[in-house]
Amino acid sequence: MSNKIYVIGTGMIKFGKYLKKSIKDLTGEALDLTQKDCNLDLSNIEAAWYSNCAWGIFSNQHCIRGEVALSANRIDQIPIINVENACASGSTAFHGAWTAIKAGLYDCVLAIGVEKLYNEDRAKTMKSFMVYTDVEATTKMIEQLKKYAQKQKEKKAKAEGTEVKKEKKGGHSAFMDIYAMAARNHMKAYGTTQRQLAVIAAKNHNNSVLNPLAQYTFPMTVEQVLDDYEVAYPLTRSMCAPIGDGAAAAILCSEKFLKANPNPRAVLIRASVLKSGSWRSDDIAKRAAKSAYEMAGLEPKDIDVAEVHDATAFGEVHQTEQMGFCPIGKGGPFAESGATALDGKIPINTSGGLLSRGHPIGASGLAQIYELVTQLRGEAGERQVKAKIALAENGGGTIGFGEAAMCVHILEKI
Fold first, then answer.
1. Is the distance from CB of 215 to CB of 357 less than 8 angstroms?
2. In Å, what is the CA distance from 364 to each residue of 52, 74, 160, 284, 331?
3. Active site residue 409
């Protein structure tokens, strides 16, 4: 008996800022879009995986989030599994749904991710990001990083004969300090430049102009990215993912279900991998990619398009290398060469990525799935690329100097 698993429906709302809408509202909108995408009656869904991280922080809904949000939108009584895995929550929900079908428990399931991060109190939002780390250890590390970053700013300003740039009111998340440190280490070890990071950020901003569901839909030049205010050297604001709200979902099914309910737009899941990080090493991305390629029976050269976790422009450099698309240390020059552009060797973050599509944490992993399914179906409009095989990499939280959780998925057009 075949054990193939497919995506038959996807849906995503426009990412942005929805102060007047609730988590329940966003859940319903994404669910409706996903249902309409595959014209499937919701009674066919046998189980659901619900991804969310911050509902408890901002609205005190710490528990039974999926049951609360989905029961308000016509889904109840079935098994509902709540998923929290920091920024990898959405992809972890997708992996959980895939695993259940793989085990033979169900034939049709839902994975949905919803998040509301935008708050008029920006400082409160930024402070909330600490919960996605080992809080005790990270608090100490961040203080050291801030002191180092301040010294670097002063050194740079002195060399240029300018004043030290002030941080925007409300600050930034702890993750930007961690990413900035990793970027500086990469620059020192391999010669990666700030301009190369700006090339990536400009590319993703320009890709999002072609994505009507992206949070940002304005173009940017490399110079504009470099001239934006500094968040934590070498990262400027335009190199960092924005705060926002959003929802995305996917319906997965077995081959048995697909045969009984034919869908010419179905996409095959070739691999679904979830890994956890460690204080002892930070090779989680390489481990996850290796497992995914082995499961799919593919190599990096077989991938036609990818969505990777670019919470900052450096994140794309790092993951481009870790996924095997270029040698370690060459991610900057690889992007600068145009290899990751829409018309390049391997288009990366055609959606605009987290940098510009937006990063509502619990929804981001499923937004990647939405983009790649759209590309494989040939329905991406002006940002369409030629693709048969697609890869999604989604990391979450930090343990030590690497991600705490990571999913890698490989999809195929059939």
1. yes
2. 10, 24, 38, 19, 23
3. no
Of 38, 53, 87, 240, the active-site residue reads 87
**282: Cβ contacts below 8 Å, ≥ 6 apart:** 400, 401, 402, 403
For 378, which DSSP code? T
The reply to whether 359 belongs to the active site is yes
Res 281: pLDDT: 74
Active site residue: 95, 172, 359, 409, which one?
359
- The continuous run of DSSP H or E covering 31 comes out as helix 23-38
Q: Using one digit for the tens of pLDDT, what is the confidence trace for 4-53?
A: 999 999 999 999 999 999 999 999 999 999 999 999 999 999 999 999 99
State how far the Cα of 339 lies from the Cα of 157, in Å rounded to an integer. 33
In degrees rounded to 5, what are phi and psi of residue 29? -65, -45
Q: Please name the residue that has the structure tokens 């968040």.
A: 231
Q: Average pLDDT of the chain?
A: 93
- 158-176 pLDDT, tens digit per residue, is 888 887 765 554 456 667 8
| Distance between CA atoms of residues 278 and 397, nearest Å | 12
Positive or negative, the CA dihedral 369, 203, 152, 318 is positive
Q: In whole angstroms, give the CA distance from residue 339 to residue 206.
A: 15
